[in-house]
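User
New here, help please:
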Amino acid sequence: MSRYRFAIDNVQAHLRSLWLIIGLQIMVIAALCYGWSRAPEHLTVHIPPDLRSGAVQHHTEVPAASVYAFAFYLFQQLNRWPEDGSRDYGRAIFRIAPYVTPRYRAELLANLDEKGRRGELAYRVRALQGIPGLGYSENRVDILDSQTWQVWLDLELLESVKGMTVKRTRIRYPLRVVRYAVDPEANPWGLALDGFGADGPRRLTDADLLGGEPAHAIQ
């Protein structure tokens, strides 16, 4: 009789250990489900353009090519006035507002007001385009710190008033770009223009166009 009793006690002890293991597994599964629910739904990863030799990219790292592309695209949109600068410039500032810092937005609005008072916007059409041979290269993006870059854009500025060309100039724009991950819904890049760096824009010389020097080496 005692032998059967001992066997029953062993079975019950084994069942209790199994229930303990099941309870621990439920707790682990619940913790995993909670962690899964807290994981980000969207993760932005900047992929470098040249993958011929492969790439190892951390999701917080922004390659120089992505910074350059961001600055080029946004600055081109800011300076695209297809019909009338008196209307188009303000619309462009409003359209790219999520992609500029508050400081630079204030500068742009002040510039809009100044140009309007000086009569430099009415009926003015403006566009920026890249210059062949002076596009992206690694030396066109300077890393100032982990949160800030300076991008050197060599672009051709085209302006006309009532169909008459009034300006056709090649200019070097030193643009500051900063991390700005404050509204991923409106700004998935997590970057923002922060105005001009260095000494501001200047006209390109023939030496700039023919010399092939690094962008930041010619001041």
The mean pLDDT is 82.
